[in-house]
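thought: fold this chain, then report.
action: predict
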Amino acid sequence: MGKKLVLFWIFGSILIMVSSWILGNAERVFGAYVFSYYLAIFIAFVLMLAGGLAWITVASKVAKH
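observation:
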């Protein structure tokens, strides 16, 4: 496996970790904007999709070897 694939795999892991961190700390509290809560959840969702896509890309490249 090349350096680029390893870096892409680690990048996907970091994206999923950040997404999990955001989702773990997101909570609706009194006085906070509802929009900001849903925006944080949406950003975490997009990060999770990007990290999964990075992992799928690495897996398909490794399977071709």
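thought: worth noting. Residues 34-64 form the longest helix (31 residues).
final: tokens above.
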